[in-house]
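User: structure tokens for this one?
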Amino acid sequence: MISPLVFCVVVVGIAKAGDLKAFGRIGVKALIWFEIASTVALVIGLLAANLVGPGKGMNVDPASLDAAAVEQTTGGEHLPSTTEFLLHALPESFVGAFADNELLQVLILACLVGAALLHLGHTKVPKILPAIDQAQDVIFAVVGFIMRLAPIAVFGAMAHLVGNYGLGVMKTYAKLIVLCYVAAALFIVLLAVALRLVTGLSLWKFLRYIREEMLLALGTASTEAVMPRVMQKLRRAGARDDAVGLVLPTGYSFNLDGASLYLSIGTLFIAQAVGVDLTLGQQVTVVLVLMLTSKGMAGIPGSAFLALSATASSLGAIPAGAVALLLGVDRIMDSMRVVTNLLGNCVAVFAVSRWEGALDTARAKKTLDGDYAAPPEDGDEGDGEKAVGAEAPAVEPTAAEVPASGIPTQKPKEPAPEAG
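Assistant:
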């Protein structure tokens, strides 16, 4: 459900915005924001772990740890190298990208299709864009139906967690668990400050606005479960289609702030637990290594353990088997990671949209205050076009300029030269 939705939103966003260069600027600004945010998260995690010392006093013998358990958890997978990551981002086939739910590949395909529509001109393909737009509405409607079953999913997920791990694990690792959640809360406060400074919006009002999606993410520990509805609400809150369609899915691979917090705290925890005192230089190395290994983790089984193992190996001071210390507590941390990841990416959408002039701030404030009269929940995203029109009235055609197909006409002498 995620891949078709991302494809539709990005294609429609590029085609209706009418400017491929603006789409490229959004991508560059998003990557800059992602790198800054994830680095701040890593540093906060290191500072918190140094201050509290969650692993001190455990005095664990590395020889007593079962390194094979980590291998079993990761299923023999490995983190991709930079070359492998770039090659994997290129789709082998159009259908394969959707079948495997590869978001980066789907994004590339969507950008190519959107660029092709701009290059050809909407008048040459009068039936394609309305069909994609209508497919987008259908997907949103289906997601609306599924969300009505969300409380059952949350209950089942929480029951599974307690049944599998019990309360004993939480008691044993209480210090680490509390530290991770407090560090995440601190990072969210920084996100709130950043959002206020950049856009003038309140993160707390936004949390109230997406409270149902946040509760579902908290219960299921999955951003994919809520991404369609979050995209829908971001568009309704005044963010333009192309910004939402590019920044949010890309952040799923490049802006895992919650995972960055957990990885930096986890690295110091296992070092402290086995009696290794990392120097300042080694901790700087931890940040640099995690800046690389935390990217592209989505969709890889046991990716957190792979990143931790890679970091431990790069330092040479931490036994690789020490990562097994986190096996019992990792699932409990999922909720913290997912919620922080989701909020970080939503703030990124608003911030990048504001920098690019793709955010209707007045509409966003009204929506978050509850003053904006939103259309019905299911299949209502015709208002996404209004959001675009509010930001770029010169792009939105008048009724006289729209042919029967519903596609804005382009001037013959300007057939979108950006794609050339």
